[in-house]
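Hi support team,

I've been running sequence recovery on a batch of backbones for a student project. Most finish fine, but this one hangs at about 90% for roughly twenty minutes before it completes. I'm not sure whether the input is malformed or the queue is just slow. I've pasted the structure tokens below so you can try to reproduce it. Let me know if you need the job ID as well.

Thanks,
M.K.
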């Protein structure tokens, strides 16, 4: 995430907000942010939100990921708002919205959901 440029900006129990400055290396040939970058940002943010509720000694791993691209991601930066819908003993359900921000304002570009598995950390 550091190499990609993702930065956490807010965290609270069951919630995570991250930002990513859009750079040319993140664009596909059409000039919009590559869908893989958007999916990675959402997946990471949802996992981090779920990790805030995990019991000590457990890690969160993505078990299922669904993304819906709503429009091209063009702007100055991406903002991801992720939250846990339901925490269970062995899985958590999460959602995220990814927005672009720029001179024209904030635009929703992706909705995502994920099932996160809680697994015991190995010694």
């Amino acid at each position: 995430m550091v190499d990609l440029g993702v930065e956490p900006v807010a965290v609270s129990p069951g919630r995570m907000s991250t930002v990513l400055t859009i750079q040319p290396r993140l664009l596909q040939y059409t000039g919009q942010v590559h869908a893989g970058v958007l999916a990675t940002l959402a997946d990471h943010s949802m996992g981090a939100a779920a990790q805030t509720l995990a019991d000590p000694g457990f890690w969160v791993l993505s078990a299922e990921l669904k993304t819906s691209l709503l429009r091209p991601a063009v702007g100055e930066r991406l903002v991801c708002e992720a939250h846990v819908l339901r925490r269970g003993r062995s899985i958590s359900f999460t959602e995220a919205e990814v927005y672009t921000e720029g001179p024209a304002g904030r635009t929703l570009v992706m909705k995502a959901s994920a099932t996160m598995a809680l697994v015991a950390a190995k010694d």
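--
Follow-up from support: It reproduced on our side and the slowdown came from queue contention, not your input. The chain has a mean pLDDT of 96. No action needed from you.
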